[in-house]
Specification:
Elements (H helix, E strand, L loop, with lengths): L39 E6 L4 H5 L3 H9 L3 E7 L4 H4 L7 E4 L2 H8 L2 E7 L4 H9 L1 E10 L5 E3 L5 H6 L3 H7 L4 H8 L15 H14 L4 E5 L13 H15 L2 E5 L5 H11 L4 E2 L6 H9 L3 E5 L2 H8 L4 E5 L13 E5 L16 H4 L3 H15 L2
Parallel strand pairs: 1-2, 1-4, 2-3, 4-5, 7-8, 7-10, 8-9, 10-11, 11-12
Antiparallel strand pairs: 5-6
Helix pairs in contact: 9-12, 10-11, 10-15
Length: about 375
């Protein structure tokens, strides 16, 4: 159906609302000085996990480098939306569900990039109209497929353990850029975090105790709980941060870490501050932004720190360190026994994490602090 030619309604303007005036004009669109056509319309589909979503955001800068004038819509999960709203280069954030699926599938885009293997994501990738489609889609058999050969390597990583665990040396960013027909050139992570969020994080840590602070994040997610550092080792690490580095250790984590963190606090005594475990995600990011450094395993907190140039000492046991890009502001502590990486959700010996010493973590922590020039 041909779109009506109505001078008072510029449907392709990025400010056009339709059911009410936009913020620039209350007299229709005709002769509006703020008229700003969308240009190339791009849809990015990446729902979860949260850490993977935010390290997909470097794609935005690469696409905007390719297209001087474009409009980027990002379909994401509800948990990640607060991190993307307000992020530089992302014009619209849509939480993907049953209703928004129909809203997006009814539109036309110039380019579509799906970097997610969830059924809802690949269904949308398959059904939405776009001139160029890259990444993952749904096959006629209802399985995960790819739009073209550029995404073949990313797909194979999911089904070939030797390739993922041993042979692959590419970072996550390099893998997804290749799937999109692009080359990763160090484009950075972007978050919709503002100065108010960062100020709030600083104030929260000041209310806990005197800084400067080094965060110890105990979260590891429910799927790969095997990558957690032991409670005893975490408490010993806190004491060494206070005694040998002379900075204030502060314990971080999510709601699922509450009981575990309480036990660690008892083991560590007064040397360790408790930042709490019930913060909304933007508040949590604000707290991380106020740290001098962060010690963590391969989890969301690591990516949030890197996104804000907070140095990290990142611990890797059962997961692949090769896929993590720290942008030169962190160091990896890698345990590589006979059984690692395994990506197992449970383990009866925990060799990889037990082999990592507190002294090694402290050494890497000193290194990242010296690089920053504490």
């Amino acid at each position: 159906m041909r779109q009506a030619n109505l001078p008072f309604a510029k449907f392709d303007c990025r400010h056009f609302v339709g059911e009410k005036p936009c913020r620039f004009s209350h007299a229709g669109c005709e002769d509006c000085a703020a008229y700003d056509p969308m240009g190339v319309r791009i849809l990015i589909i990446k729902l979860a996990a949260m850490g993977d979503v935010i390290r997909t955001t470097p794609l935005v800068a690469a696409l905007r480098e390719r297209h001087e004038h474009c409009h980027v819509t990002w379909a994401c999960g509800a948990a990640t939306a607060p991190l993307l709203r307000g992020a530089k280069g992302i014009d619209k954030v849509i939480v993907l569900n049953g209703d928004s699926f129909n809203y997006l599938a009814a539109q036309s885009f110039n380019e579509l990039y799906c970097l997610d293997k969830e059924m809802l994501a690949i269904s949308l990738s398959s059904q939405t109209n776009a001139e160029l489609k890259k990444g993952f889609t749904m096959t006629p058999q209802g399985a995960i497929g790819i739009h073209d050969d550029d995404a073949a390597y990313a797909l194979r990583l999911g089904v070939d353990d030797p390739l993922k665990f041993i042979e692959n040396q590419n970072s996550y960013q390099e893998i997804i850029f290749e799937a999109c027909g692009l080359s990763f050139s160090g484009e950075t992570i972007v978050l919709g975090i503002n100065n108010e969020d960062r100020t709030q994080g600083q104030r929260h840590l000041e209310s806990c105790g005197k800084g400067p602070w080094i965060g110890i994040n105990t979260g590891a997610g429910d799927v790969f709980a095997t990558k957690r550092l032991s409670e005893e080792k975490t408490a010993a690490l806190a004491k060494k941060i206070a005694d040998e580095i002379g900075m204030t250790p502060v314990l971080l984590g999510g709601k699922t870490e509450r009981q575990r963190n309480d036990r660690i606090l008892k083991l560590a005594g007064n040397t360790l501050l408790d930042a709490g475990t019930d913060h909304p995600i933007r508040d949590f990011v604000g707290i991380i932004s106020a740290l001098s450094a962060l010690v963590c395993v391969d989890t969301l907190a690591m990516h949030l720190a890197v996104a804000q140039a907070v140095p990290v000492a990142a611990i890797f046991g059962p997961t692949c360190h090769q896929e993590v890009h720290l942008y030169g502001i962190g160091e990896k502590i890698i345990s590589a026994p006979w059984c690692s990486p395994c990506y197992k959700g449970s383990c009866d010996h925990h060799t990889c994490m037990n082999e990592i010493s507190v002294d090694e973590i402290i050494e890497r922590l000193r290194s990242v602090l010296n690089k920053r020039g504490k």
